[in-house]
Specification:
This protein is mainly alpha-helical. The protein has helices at 2-10, 14-39, 43-46, 49-65, 78-102. 78% of the residues lie in helices and 0% in strands. The longest helix is centred in the N-terminal third of the chain and has 26 residues, at 14-39.
Length: 104
């Protein structure tokens, strides 16, 4: 029931979908830039699609649970940015736990 309500609210208007796409795009860009900085010119040898998939799924789950997409675009304040940062932090912890358990 909860999941259906959240997904229904997410797809209730185009603005929510655009915000989700922008947020996921910036997350994936951040992962890519992190790999680029970490491995410099040899990032192609170290990149795996699982980095993007696992973090993307974790981020999406917490993004929907915390209802980050329901925040107003016109009146975004520092609390909204802090909530999005917290969502990213929790997704990072879940991703690190996943790789620690799977030993990758």
């Amino acid at each position: 029931m909860f999941r259906e309500n959240v997904i229904t609210e997410l797809f209730s208007n185009k603005r929510n979908i655009v915000k989700l796409i922008i947020d996921l795009g910036t997350v994936f860009t951040g992962i890519f830039l992190g790999l680029l900085v970490r491995f410099e010119g040899k990032w192609e040898e170290h990149v795996e699609s699982s980095y993007f998939i696992v973090y993307g799924i974790a981020f999406l789950c917490f993004y929907l649970i915390r209802k980050n997409s329901m925040k107003s675009w016109s009146y975004t304040n520092s609390l909204d940015v802090l909530n999005l940062t917290a969502t990213n932090f929790v997704a990072l912890i879940v991703t690190l736990a996943y790789y620690a358990v799977s030993r990758q």
